């Protein structure tokens, strides 16, 4: 009987080739619907790691297939939500040794040194306050508690929206609409045309921020999504619980090899004993024939 632990080891290239082909076949396999399951991106990264696929490859593929508009909410008449939130929960708690790596990632993605505050097992980063510009309501939080680590990137756009719509809408609308309406009214001697001109200028003045605001939110949200992914990678690599989960497969394989080796040794000993008994029986039979 063939030893079940003596199967041929597949090379990493063969594993990748088989997985690619299996995914192609799964698209047309009747049993796919019965076994397929949904999972989070973190779960996909963990399972892919057991198959020898690096988390960077999964993150890159997920980013390529992400929807163009990251924020799902449309934000009503503003065109975008006034608050975006991206968060991910990771198994295991982080130690203070990983805080420096987390801050380096935040500064690299945002391009801002920012301000860092650490209270217990919670790291909070906020942008640098510049008196000459509108302060951003952005916060990045990495918190470890109850055996889990929560990574959160949140930004509110209330102040930015007010400044944009009031500054451009009312500023340009009233500042430019009233003189234009007065000029048209004086030239045409028509009050109705002056009112229509004023309304048209106001609508145009509010249309400009209505186009700018969603574009800014989408661009920042994509940057937030990238930041969340990179922070999650760092947290996942630094989390003791995550490392233990990834290394569970290797001890199992070593244990199976040791068991296989023990069974092989026992089988070899049994064969040796059987051969020794057969030789002893043959010698005994030869001596019996010689006496006759």
Give a brief description.
With 292 residues, the protein is of the alpha+beta class.
List keywords for this structure.
292 residues, 5 strands, TATA-Binding Protein, 13% strand, 5-stranded antiparallel β-sheet, alpha+beta
The largest sheet is: 5 strands, antiparallel
Order of helices and strands: HHHHEHEEEEHHHH
Just name the CATH architecture of the domain at 76-162 and 203-244.
Answer: 2-Layer Sandwich
Q: How confident overall, as mean pLDDT?
A: 75
CATH level-3 fold name of the domain at 76-162 and 203-244: TATA-Binding Protein
Find the count of extended strands (DSSP E, 2+ residues).
5
Report the total helices. 9
Structural category: alpha+beta
Q: What percent strand?
A: 5-15%
CATH class of the domain at 76-162 and 203-244: Alpha Beta
Radius of gyration, whole Å: 34 Å
Can you describe this structure?
By secondary structure, the protein is an alpha+beta fold. The chain has a domain at 76-162 and 203-244: TATA-Binding Protein. Helix content is 62%, strand content 13%. The protein is built from nine helices and five strands, in the order H-H-H-H-E-H-E-E-E-E-H-H-H-H. The protein has a five-stranded antiparallel sheet with strand order 1-5-4-3-2. Strand 2 (115-119) and strand 3 (122-126) form a beta hairpin. Helix 3 (41-50) packs across helix 4 (55-64), helix 5 (99-110) runs antiparallel to helix 7 (191-238) and helix 6 runs antiparallel to helix 7 (191-238). The radius of gyration is 34 Å and the shape is elongated. Residues 68-73 and 249-262 have low confidence and may be disordered.
């Amino acid at each position: 009987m063939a030893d079940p632990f003596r199967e041929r080891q597949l090379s990493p290239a063969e594993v990748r080739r088989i997985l690619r082909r299996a995914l192609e076949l799964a698209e047309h396999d009747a049993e796919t619907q019965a076994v397929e399951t949904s999972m989070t991106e973190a779960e996909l990264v963990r399972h892919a790691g057991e198959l020898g696929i690096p988390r960077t490859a999964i993150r890159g593929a997920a980013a390529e297939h992400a929807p163009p508009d990251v924020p799902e909410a449309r934000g009503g008449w503003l065109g975008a939500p006034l608050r975006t939130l991206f968060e991910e929960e990771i198994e295991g708690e982080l130690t203070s040794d990983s805080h420096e790596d987390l801050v380096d990632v935040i500064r690299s993605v945002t391009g801002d040194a920012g301000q860092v505050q650490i209270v217990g097992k919670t790291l909070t980063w906020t942008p640098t306050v510049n008196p000459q510009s509108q302060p951003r309501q952005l916060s990045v939080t990495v918190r470890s508690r109850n055996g889990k680590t929560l990574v959160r990137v949140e930004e509110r756009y209330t102040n930015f929206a007010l400044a944009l719509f009031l500054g451009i809408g009312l500023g340009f609308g009233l500042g430019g609409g009233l003189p234009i309406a007065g000029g048209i009214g004086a030239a045409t001697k028509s009050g109705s045309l002056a009112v229509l001109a004023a309304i048209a200028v106001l609508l145009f003045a509010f249309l400009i921020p209505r186009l700018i605001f969603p574009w800014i939110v989408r661009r920042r949200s994509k940057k937030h999504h990238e930041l969340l992914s990179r922070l999650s990678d760092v947290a996942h690599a630094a989390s003791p619980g995550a490392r233990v989960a990834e290394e569970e497969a290797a001890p199992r394989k070593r244990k199976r090899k040791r068991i296989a080796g023990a069974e092989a040794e026992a089988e070899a000993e049994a064969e040796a004993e059987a051969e020794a008994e057969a030789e002893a029986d043959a010698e005994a039979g030869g001596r019996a024939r010689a006496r006759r």
